[in-house]
Amino acid sequence: MTRGDSEVVRAAVTLNQSTPPNRVLHRTGAAEEPGLVVSCRVQAELTASKYQFELDETGWVQRSLYTADTARWSRYVTPKVGGTHTLTLKLRPIVKVQREDRTTKASVSAENSNVQEYETSAHVMVPLTERPQETMSRLAATFKVAESLVTALTALVAAVIALGAVLGIRRKKRAAA
């Protein structure tokens, strides 16, 4: 990748339908139960540091594995600073279960506990003509982090001073009484 140039990052998930019969769960009496229609969907989200990359879209994007055994995603990513950085693809299954006769409302499940994360490294080059902007971007990112730390520290000091003032007022009331 090159700093400032948008590139497409692609990901794909392929459904493996070659599960051996001994891995299928069997239950006695299952043949008498009404059938269920189960459709599998997968959601993906690409994440990265906001100081290192700009993403064209954020959030979960759903794809179905009903009509094809491969789900594909793509995102435009624009690197902000040079170096080797991490992009993370998060995947989670969405299962929709509905009775075969479609008389009941479908139940849909997207559990956060089932999220799998896959990291990849991206090396970002900085052309010579963009070295000054690169330096300024790095300084801006550093100052944003420092600004957040100063804000948090200021809030903590203000809370300690307020607590001290409240405790001091109570002691004065007790001493006066």
Descriptive notes:
- The structure is a single chain.
- With 177 residues, this protein is an alpha+beta fold.
- The chain has 2 domains: 7-126, Immunoglobulin-like, CATH 2.60.40; 130-176.
- It is 26% helix and 38% strand.
- Strands 2, 4, 6, 7 and 8 form a 5-stranded antiparallel beta sheet that branches.
- It is flat, with a radius of gyration of 27 Å.
- The model has no long low-confidence stretch (mean pLDDT 79).
In percent terms, what proportion of residues is strand?
35-45%
Helix content: 25-40%
- First-residue to last-residue Cα separation: 73 Å
Mean pLDDT across the residues is 79
Name of the CATH first level of the largest domain: Mainly Beta
* Series of H and E elements: EEEEEEEEH
Q: Total number of β-strand segments?
A: 8
Structural class: alpha+beta
Please mark out the parts with pLDDT under 50 across 5 or more consecutive residues, or reply none: none
Radius of gyration: 27 Å
Q: Helical element count?
A: 1
Oligomer classification = single chain
> What fold name goes in the CATH topology slot of the largest domain?
Immunoglobulin-like
CATH architectural group of the largest domain: Sandwich
Q: Largest sheet, described in full?
A: 5 strands, antiparallel
Give the total of domains.
Answer: 2
Q: Which word captures the global form?
A: flat
Write the SSE topology:
Blueprint: E1 7-14, E2 36-48, E3 53-55, E4 61-64, E5 70-79, E6 83-99, E7 107-109, E8 116-124, H1 131-176
Antiparallel strand pairs: 1-5, 2-4, 2-6, 3-5, 6-7, 6-8
